[in-house]
C-alpha cells in the first residue's frame, strides 16, 4: 500500500446547511463539533478561488479512529461548490495524514496525480488535494497536521 494513502485522518462531507447537518449528527450521538482550526499562515497557498476557500465553513468531530469534517462551501465558485451543485451532498474528499507533506506531494506528482489545491506552512504542515475524482470517485488529500 502506498504510504501516501495509508493513514486515514478524516472524511469530508459537503453539505448545504452546516447547522442542520451538525444537529442531525448530534441527534445520533456524533460530536462534539468544533470549528475547523485553520492554523497559521501559509507560505504557499494555491487554490482555485482564495475568496471562496476563506468563506467556506467547516465543523469537525473527532471520533476514536478518525475525524468527520462537514463543509458548507458557501455561494462562491469552488470545487466543493461545484460538487454540491452537480452531485448533491456527499463525500467530497478523504484526507490522509503523512509524515512529510512535501515528500508526499512529490510522490503524488511521480504517480501522475494532478493537484486541485495545495498549501504549505513554514513548519512543514499543510495539505495537497489530488485530482483523483475520475478514477477514485473522490478527491484524495494528503496533509501534515500541526503537532
Structure, explained:
It is a single chain. By secondary structure, the protein is of the alpha+beta class. The protein has a single domain (3-144), classed as 2,3-Dihydroxybiphenyl 1,2-Dioxygenase, domain 1 (Roll), CATH 3.10.180. Helices cover 27% and strands 33% of the residues. It contains 5 helices and 9 strands, in the order E-H-E-E-H-E-E-H-E-H-E-E-H-E. The protein has helices at 18-27, 50-55, 79-87, 101-110, 133-136; strands at residues 8-14, 34-35, 44-46, 57-62, 67-72, 90-97, 115-120, 126-130, 139-144. The chain has a 9-stranded mixed β-sheet. The two termini are 25 Å apart.
* CATH architecture label name: Roll
Q: Quick one: biggest sheet?
A: 9 strands, mixed
- Widest sheet: strand ordering: 2-4-5-1-6-9-8-7-3
Helix coverage percent: 25-40%
Gyration radius (Cα, Å) is 15 Å
Protein name: VOC family protein
Pfam families: Glyoxalase_4
Keywords: Metal-binding
Domain VOC: 7-145
Q: Which key features would you list for this structure?
A:
globular; 9 strands; 27% helix; 147 residues; 2,3-Dihydroxybiphenyl 1,2-Dioxygenase, domain 1; 9-stranded mixed sheet
Which secondary structure elements does this structure contain, and how are they paired or packed?
Elements: E1 8-14, H1 18-27, E2 34-35, E3 44-46, H2 50-55, E4 57-62, E5 67-72, H3 79-87, E6 90-97, H4 101-110, E7 115-120, E8 126-130, H5 133-136, E9 139-144
Parallel strand pairs: 1-5, 6-9
Antiparallel strand pairs: 1-6, 2-4, 3-7, 4-5, 7-8, 8-9
